[in-house]
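Structure tokens please, single chain.
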Amino acid sequence: MNYFSIKQISYKAILVFSMILFFVCYYLDSVIDPSKTEFIFVVGYMFAIMLAAFWSIINYIDHLRINPLYKSYESIDQFIHDLNVNEDEKMEIKTMMVDYVSDQKSLGNDEDTAIVDIISQFKNEELHKPSNSDVFFVHVHKYLLGLGGVLLIAGIFVYLFNALTYKNEMLTVLDITLICYAAGFYLSFIMYNILNKVLIKK
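Here you go.
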């Protein structure tokens, strides 16, 4: 699995907006008299954090997949498409199912009934295997570790550059933002793995 795949992040716009909002509020709070604007920026921080938390929830949900053995299908192609096996196995299963349906049709049986029947037979056989009994297929989410590492390294680089050159408030805020969201990625990874274990036990 690719540790640095941005494609694996769902709802990127929400996460990016959260980061920008956090950065802007933090920067303005550091350059404007806080006694005049404290409430506004507190609301901004809270909203940015809530957006990040909301993203972590919907990102996890978007990666969940219901085991096709627990779903209803009316066509062989739909069922085969959802199976969590390689392409060769999919073709082998499809061929077996199509042959069964053809045999039933030659015997004068209804095609739709034969399709439902062979899918049901296959699901019943597979559900008796311990490896296929889980209701959900969970995602490992290793991309959070890789991308969190990228943000962390970027934050350290910005910090060192700022410390060795000249003290710039915008760079300081950028550094804090990058490190905070890197920590958020790692926290999400831990939370996701806890949820995965809970779902698997169910």
